[in-house]
Amino acid sequence: MPGRRRSIAETEQAVQERLGGFELQREQMAAVANIHRAAAAVRQHLENSALRPHDLTWTGFVVLWVLWIWGEAETWSVAEEAGISKGTLTGIARTLESRHLVARAPHPEDGRRVLLSLTPEGEELMERLFPVFNAEEAFVATPLSAEECLRLANGLRAIVAQLEEHGEERRRQLLDGRDLAPRRSGRRSRR
Amino acid sequence: MPGRRRSIAETEQAVQERLGGFELQREQMAAVANIHRAAAAVRQHLENSALRPHDLTWTGFVVLWVLWIWGEAETWSVAEEAGISKGTLTGIARTLESRHLVARAPHPEDGRRVLLSLTPEGEELMERLFPVFNAEEAFVATPLSAEECLRLANGLRAIVAQLEEHGEERRRQLLDGRDLAPRRSGRRSRR
DNA sequence: CCGGAATTATTTGATGCCAAACGAGAGGGC
DNA sequence: GCCCTCTCGTTTGGCATCAAATAATTCCGG
Fold first, then answer.
1. How far is CA A163 from CA A79, B38, B103, in A?
2. How far is the CA of B140 from the C1' of D21 (A)?
3. Cα gap A45→B172, rounded to integer Å
4. How many angstroms away from the CA of A190 is the closest CA of chain B?
5. A73 sits in which H/E element
6. What contacts A1, CB < 8 A, 6 or more positions away?
7. Given CB atoms, is A9 within the 8 Å cutoff of chain B?
8. Maximal CA-CA distance, chain B
């Protein structure tokens, strides 16, 4: 039966056959796999519904959101809240600045730091856009009750917390002395 | 107190103040936001623990995984299972092929199609790598019981299903006649 | 069989994304 | 003042990513 997507049951069956010999952490595997399926699906829907008319990417929107909620903020803190690296933020902020949605200002006391804030244009955009965005968030979560949404959010938060608290330690243990191979990509040393 | 990450409670407080005037779908918003936080955190941990020693990216691993479980498969189906676009798969497959982990073969009956499969080298890698990967999946899910993992997975699956079943229809309705502005990026017509 | 419609993978262009290197500035000790 | 170190944001390099355009092939009606 070609052309049909495989069902969850079929996949689990195939996995079981393939992994018969392994000690499989089945439930955890299912959770992790579905986090990514869901994240990709939700992101794509929101980009193609609420965001596309304003020519915003997901990440661009998140950065605007952070600035909208928190007001003027230092870049490191925006990157942290938005869940992206500071290097990525530099690029996003440049894009948003070029579209006059975000302003960049030097820190009054520390020449290294930079403050980001929404322009009036950016504020106005968020006031119009947020209700639309939130409506789509509600749409994707339609099959879940409010309580189920909270359960879901709590479970996910626990995973994030686990990694924040123990992730680094764990990675150190796994390396166990050996040093991590450098990423294939990334800036090279001059030497 | 500069330099400290904002707590969930602080964020919710700030959101409430900022959004006092809006009809806010609070639970759904929390769920969607945390899906992305968790997805990014998990992906980063796995890339920097299990995958980095083998110089694999997340997506590269997922593609290998799909081929490992399902065996030889057509590209469209691999892209579907891996949750990426077929254009992206072309690039990933090229990378994996250059590292002799994946082989590409023409479809015996249809010259347009291409079949992907693991090389023996790729099989061997997955046999060694999967247990390590699965152990890290278990690690990130440590705070959750097996049953909670399943609940989480089910909730996420429901969201994915919602979008698969009703996403396209919804986007059509939202547009309501107007045609979607083209993406800023993407190939341009010759005209 | 011929020619247009449909289907398939690839190419293209712009952006996102990370980690590591880098440069500019701050801060402390002497 | 002068280092030396630390801490910022930015740059860099290599992939990943999508959607639309395109090329290659098959399918179908006549």
1. 18, 9, 35
2. 42
3. 12
4. 22
5. strand A73-74
6. none
7. no
8. 67
Strand pairing of A114-118 and A102-106?
antiparallel
Yes or no, beta carbons of B14 and A146 under 8 Å apart: no
Comparing C-alpha atoms, which of B110, B20, B26, B62 is closest to residue A37? B62
Strand partners, B21: none
In chain A, residues 115-134 whose CB comes closer than 8 Å to chain B: 130-131, 134
How far apart CA B144 and CA B147 sit, in angstroms, is 8
First-residue to last-residue Cα distance in chain B:
56
Give one DSSP letter per residue of B39-68, joined into a string. HHHHHHHHIIIIIGGGT--HHHHHHHHHHH
Chain B span 128-167 residues with beta carbon within 7 Å of strand C: none
Residues 62-91 of A with CB within 7 A of strand C: 83-88, 91
Q: Does B34 touch chain A (CB under 8 A)?
A: yes
- Protein A116 CA to nucleic acid D30 C1', in Å? 66
The full DSSP string for B70-110 is H-SEEHHHHHHHHTS-HHHHHHHHHHHHHTTSEEEEE-SS-
Strand C neighbours among B 73-102, CB < 7 A: 74-76, 86-87, 89-91, 93-94
Would you tell me how many other CB atoms lie within 10 Å of the CB of residue A152?
A: 28
- Residue showing tokens 């089945």: A26
The strand pair at B114-118 and A102-106 is best described as unpaired
User: What are the tens digits of pLDDT across the range A18-52?
Assistant: 777 677 788 888 899 889 989 988 998 999 888 98
Are A81 and A70 in contact by the 8 Å Cβ rule? The answer is yes
Tokens of B148: 């909670």
Give the number of C-alpha atoms closer than 13 A to the C-alpha of residue A180, restricted to the C-beta side. Answer: 16
Q: What is the model's pLDDT at position A177? A: 60
* pLDDT tens per residue across span A85-95: 999 999 999 98
pTM given for the model: 0.87
Nearest to B105 by CA among B77, B132, B74: B74
Using an 8 Å Cβ cutoff, are A49 and B171 in contact?
yes
